[in-house]
Amino acid sequence: MGNFCARSEAEDPSTIAKVVIGEDYKEFPDKIAGSGVKATPAWQATVTRAQLNQKRDEFWRSRTEGNRRVWMAIKAAVEADPATALSILQNMKIKMKTGNLTILEDDHGIIYSIPVFMINNPLNFHNEKKHKGRIINDREENIKVRIRRAGVGEDEVIEIMNTAKVEELRKIYADKVKVMPCQVRLFYDGKEMKDHCILSALYIEDGVVIMVFLKSL
Description:
Elements: E1 6-8, E2 26-33, E3 40-44, H1 49-61, H2 68-79, H3 82-91, E4 95-96, E5 103-105, E6 110-113, H4 116-119, E7 142-149, E8 156-161, H5 166-177, E9 184-188, E10 191-192, E11 209-214
Parallel strand pairs: 7-11
Antiparallel strand pairs: 1-6, 2-3, 4-5, 5-6, 7-8, 9-10, 9-11
């Protein structure tokens, strides 16, 4: 599951380079991380949250083989909740070879291998204390959020007050991409964002990525 190249079925798997997140990286087949299509063996390594985020960014930037649109859809699926991830794969006609996101095949037979550490976080991060709860930012601030749609190359960056409601964000996005607001569904942290909710109450901060899906009329 550590492979990360796109390849064809005929290609020798032994030629596929292995991803190394740390010398002490270890997977635990008897423990499961994630759920649904994002279920994988749990894993552990001496890595901080920042280091893992950097490694993940490097992974996506270095994808040079396979179809670019497929890679973008896979990235969106990896970053979405399990139900949304499944919808993305189905819409792009991407097959799961192992029942989860680790080995995927597009409609041209190209295989895309995704490391476990890209899909789920480790059992524990190095040098990070556990917090009982997240703190809601109750200060009124102007923030920029990135709205990401599967299969679309560029995120839409929207500037908005953190005290605005989701409904306002949805309308702004709809206006930018020339669709009806009723077509827009926004997701963050694996959950759909409801119109009446205040952005700050959903922990929406400057720079966060929000997934969007458009419904057909």
